[in-house]
Amino acid sequence: MATTASPALVTTEGAAAENSTSYYDYDYLDSVFLVCRKDDVQSFRLVFLPVFYSLIFGLGLAGNLLLFAVLLCCVPRRRMAEVYLLNLTISNLLFVVTLPFWTISVVWHWVFGSFLCKVVSTLYTISIYSGIFFISCMSLDKYLEIVHAQPLHRLRTQAKIWLLVVLVWAVALAISVPETVFVRVHEDPEGVWSCHPDFGGPGANWKLFLRFQLNLLGFLLPLSAMIFVYARIGCVLVRLQPRGQGRALRMAVALVVAFFTFWFPYNLTLFLYSLLDLQVLWDCQISRRLDYAMQVTESLAFLHCCFTPILYGFSSHRFRQYLKALLVTVLPGRLAPGFTGASLSRGSKSSSLTTQEDMAGLNELAEGQAGAP
Fold it and tell me: InterPro entries, per this entry (predicted)?
């Protein structure tokens, strides 16, 4: 997609349409009418996107449902980190449920009507921004626990946690308002229906605004915050040299690298599309290459919903214990002999007493710092 609008759109409407999905692009340069055919881009899209969307839907749904079940059923007392992780999981689930709609739209066309067009597009935008915001909140939470454990502990009350959660969802909803206003169902001359924003006429500037908004709020600011937060955490780890320092540092680096890997290519492609719309760049070959890049980088960004449960949940020793507790409940007869809920409970109590000694990552370090005298 060329904006924050619905992904993988089909249109033949020309310059006002989404560049990344047009069969043709039209423009006037020096009074010469240019036509850029994109049949090969369309052929690639019809094969690549349905396969990739289906893969992301399956992996994202399974991973996030599992994490959601662990958080809801097995975590005895949801603290700040668990509350953010729970909301991140909900955000991911909202995102993956939109993928079947886009897959059907790619394979066939938009058959769900105008109302669902607005609803699905709005959910898509809300889930993208809320997911990124909750990742930022989790990074901030680790910063408060490790770098400012005692002075700012009073700020991390349940009431203030849920107030911040409501604020995140409200901001994501406010950001999605232009999506709701501009998105609509379109029919091309061949009778193919599509769901995407209409930025023609006075709305043309909104396309650029929404792209730059995603570049800033959805990538540059969160990435800068994560680099600052984990750099400070790294300084504390080096200074205190707790047991498990190496793994905790690797975990911090992995979180930043994963965010950059998922979102930088897509945001760079969006920025280049903005230059194309501003006619800073214009060449048929460049436009076609950006179309290919959009399909690939957007799909790479979509993978965030599959890997965030692993990075932020099951990479923690404590969450692996919760997962075992869930398996004890669901599959009591299929686990190893002697593995019971009682033994798990004893193991969890023991591990909670030796968190500093058995630290497996940032979550364990944060627990130790918060509990230190």
Answer: CCR1-9-like, Chemokine_rcpt, GPCR_Rhodpsn, GPCR_Rhodpsn_7TM
> Which tops the pLDDT comparison, 350 or 210?
210
Please check whether residue 299 is in contact with residue 106, taking contact to mean a CB–CB distance below 8 angstroms: no
Mean pLDDT of 94-115: 94
Where residue 360 falls among pLDDT bands split at 50, 70, 90?
Answer: very low
**Lookup result for tokens 């990479």:** 315
3-class SS of residue 25: strand
Amino acid at 289: R
d(CA 148, CA 151): 6
Return the SS3 of 177.
Answer: helix
Distance between CA atoms of residues 216 and 79, nearest Å? 30
Torsion of CA 121, 126, 129, 130, to 10 degrees: -150
235 contacts: CB under 8 Å, gap ≥ 6: none
Domains of the chain, earliest start first: 19-314 (1.20.1070.10)
Residue pair 137/84 in contact by the 8 Å Cβ criterion = yes
pTM for the model stands at: 0.80
